[in-house]
Write a structure and sequence with these properties.
The chain has 428 residues and is mainly α. It has 19 helices and no strands.
Length: 428
């Protein structure tokens, strides 16, 4: 289990590194380089638009790779999705700017971002199911929390490298070529991840399943459509919260509040570091008390925390900004620490790879693709961006309603056998 969990964690860390490094670049640099004819606000919105394309591609990736996973096994998905995302990310770092090739530059960004999203749409389902379907039932949330730590590590790797480059290069060097280095580094990370996954075995659930679904998406659409919509709506707040903190807040803090780029990155990275560290704790609570109670608690906390978070961000003081981000990330991981166990348990094995991945990635479209764009537009006026807080709280209420309609899935504890002595001593 430790080897499987480590391989899943490494894969999701690398895939989300690829995905997050684009988000950081979109917040800090892509607007002026690829949309120079736009105003500063419009350029940021356009850059976030290309960022959102990745989320639109993720459900398509979950359908494509989910079909492979449900028909041919979870293992092939983990190789193909990682290779696709890694190649697309390296290619982003090679795209010339608008000044060099004109409109072809942002067009290429859109295509490559779409391919990134396509690969990531398959990665989560393959990595999570490989762990979930090997794990003992009473510790399933704990073991599946390993791939859920991957996004935190991927974010820290991406932003840590950007931070190091920002500190070691002049602004001119960073704008000229430094921002490309994190994208090129994705090639080495992807190669390492592929080598790590070569020895993984197929899951027992898939081997024992019998005849696989011929058209998994059709079976999901016919028999599980309500479940897919509920899981997508339930997960929307997690995506909205995470990308409001890690993407929109970077752009808002640096461009509107005048916060130094390195200071803003450190505040966000510190909050994400703590979130990653407490992920196994949330998973243990999920194994002990159930998946649904943790999701409801985290979702409720997210709704309550939105206005304080925006107020703390508006101070432009590093300690207060960090406190706002940390509260949001703890609410987020209270939900998402158990999601990797919760979603697979909601679907039957023959369509599990497709159903769980489609629901997970549709939530990304609702919460992740729109949030940086909506938040940037709502914060465009003078004064504190209370509209952003209201938007996030509204998404949270939607998710809370969906979680309330989902069932609990935690396996019932196995009763301890009663010995003969205890049986004789027990009262009638």
């Amino acid at each position: 289990m430790l080897r499987l969990a480590a391989a899943s964690l490494a894969g999701t860390a690398i895939e989300f590194y690829d995905f997050f490094v684009y988000g950081t670049a979109a917040a800090l640099i892509l607007g002026p380089l690829f949309f120079p004819t736009f105003s500063a606000l419009a350029g940021t919105l356009a850059a976030f638009g290309t960022f959102g394309v990745g989320f639109l591609a993720r459900p398509l990736g979950s359908v494509l790779f989910g079909h492979v996973g449900d028909r041919y096994g979870r293992r092939p998905v983990m190789f193909a999705s990682l290779a696709l995302t890694g190649l697309a990310t390296v290619a982003v770092g090679c795209v010339p700017s608008y000044a060099t090739i004109g409109i072809a530059a942002p067009s290429l960004l859109l295509v490559l971002r779409f391919l990134q999203g396509l690969g990531l749409g398959g990665e989560w389902g393959g990595a999570v199911l490989l762990t979930a379907e090997h794990a003992p039932a009473h510790r399933r949330a704990l073991w599946t929390s390993f791939p859920q730590i991957g996004p935190s590590i991927g974010f820290l790797l991406a932003n840590g490298l950007v931070l190091a480059l920002s500190a070691g290069l002049t602004d001119a060097q960073f704008h000229d070529w430094g921002w490309r280095v994190p994208f090129w580094a994705a090639g080495l990370l992807a190669l390492g991840g592929l080598l790590l996954r070569t020895s993984l075995a197929e899951t027992p659930h898939f081997r024992e399943m019998g005849e696989p679904a011929r058209l998994p998406l059709l079976e999901v659409a016919r028999g599980h459509w309500r479940l897919v919509l509920l899981t997508a709506g339930a997960l929307a707040v997690g995506y909205a919260l995470f990308y409001a903190v890690t993407t929109w807040s970077l752009a808002y803090a640096t461009q509107r509040l005048g916060v130094d780029r390195m200071v803003a990155l450190v505040c966000v990275m510190a909050a994400v570091s703590i979130m990653g560290a407490v992920t196994p704790l949330a998973a243990l609570l999920g194994d002990r008390y159930g998946r649904r109670p943790l999701c409801l608690a985290g979702c409720g906390a997210a709704v309550v925390w939105m206005f304080p978070m925006v107020a703390l961000l508006g101070t432009a003081e590093p300690l207060w900004m960090f406190s706002g981000f940390l509260g949001a990330m703890l609410a987020f991981i209270t939900m998402f620490g158990v999601i990797a166990a919760y979603l697979p348990e909601l679907y039957e094995p023959r369509v599990r790879c497709t159903g769980a991945a489609v629901g997970y990635n549709l939530g990304g479209v609702v919460g992740g693709a729109l949030t940086p764009i909506a938040a940037t537009a709502l914060a465009g006026r003078d004064g504190p961006p209370w509209g952003v807080a209201a938007y996030l709280a509204g998404v949270g209420l939607l998710s809370l309603s969906c979680f309330a309609l989902l069932p609990e899935t935690r396996p019932a504890p196995v009763a301890r056998p009663v010995t003969g002595t205890e049986s004789e001593a027990a009262p009638a």
